[in-house]
């Protein structure tokens, strides 16, 4: 390439150094702001520490799952009340029953049972008590019609929750 065709590089625009300086100032201001906003004032008292958890009363139940059982049994009672009131049909009641029992089993065992089938529940030692309930409620929950009574299914679910 001949030397006569070479062109000098274009100079920077006058405002680029100002943009660079502004970015540096903004970053420095951000660091100072974070330091000021996250520090407690020098004369401020320390934040209170939470009180230690209360010890259970001497006459309290020794069952660590009592609250979970009570919540699940109340949920099953609500399913029965809604079924008797006609708010849900037998299929809907069985679906709600399955959801309540699965949630109980998930919390009780630490194993996610939300999508577990009866055969999968039977394979694991922790979830084995859930398998009969899933088997018994699968036909009424997914078939167009079923002869399974909701009250019988609820009674069996309550018995399982109380004994597990």
General description of the model:
- Keywords: Membrane, Transmembrane, Transmembrane helix.
- It comes from Cellulomonas iranensis.
- The chain crosses the membrane at residues 15-37.
- This is DUF4129 domain-containing protein.
- This protein is mainly alpha-helical and 164 residues long.
- The chain has a domain at 66-163.
- It is 58% helix and 0% strand.
- The chain contains 6 helices and no strands.
- It has helices at 16-38, 66-85, 90-109, 118-123, 131-142, 150-163.
- It is elongated, with a radius of gyration of 33 Å.
- 18% of the residues are buried.
- The mean pLDDT is 83.
Describe the SSE topology:
Layout: H1 16-38, H2 66-85, H3 90-109, H4 118-123, H5 131-142, H6 150-163
Helix pairs in contact: 2-3, 2-6, 3-5, 3-6
Keywords: Membrane, Transmembrane, Transmembrane helix
Transmembrane segments: 15-37
Protein name: DUF4129 domain-containing protein
Summarize the structure.
The chain is 58% helix and 0% strand. It has 6 helices and no strands.
Task: Give keywords.
164 residues; mainly alpha; elongated; DUF4129 domain-containing protein; membrane; transmembrane helix; transmembrane
What quaternary form is this?
Answer: single chain
Provide the gyration radius in Å. Answer: 33 Å
Question: How much helix, percentage-wise, in residues?
Answer: 55-70%
Our estimate of the beta-strand percent is under 5%
- Give the ordered list of helices and strands: HHHHHH
SS summary, helix count = 6
Taking the sheet with the most strands, its summary is: none
- The count of DSSP E runs of length 2 or more, i.e. the number of strands, is 0
Q: How would you describe the shape?
A: elongated
């Amino acid at each position: 390439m001949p030397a006569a065709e070479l062109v000098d590089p274009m100079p920077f625009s006058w405002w680029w150094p100002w943009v660079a300086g502004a970015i540096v100032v903004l970053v420095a201001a951000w660091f100072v702001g974070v330091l000021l906003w996250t520090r407690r004032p020098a004369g401020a008292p320390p934040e209170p520490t939470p009180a230690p958890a209360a010890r259970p009363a001497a006459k309290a139940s020794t069952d660590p799952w009592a609250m979970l059982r009570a919540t699940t049994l109340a949920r099953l009672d609500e399913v029965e009340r809604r079924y008797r009131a006609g708010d849900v049909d037998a299929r809907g009641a069985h679906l709600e029953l399955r959801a309540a029992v699965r949630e109980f089993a998930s919390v009780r065992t630490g194993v996610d049972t939300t999508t577990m089938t009866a055969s999968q529940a039977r394979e694991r030692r922790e979830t084995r008590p859930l398998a009969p309930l899933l088997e018994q409620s699968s036909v009424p929950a997914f078939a167009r019609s079923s002869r399974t009574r909701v009250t019988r299914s609820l009674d069996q679910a309550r018995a399982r929750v109380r004994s597990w």
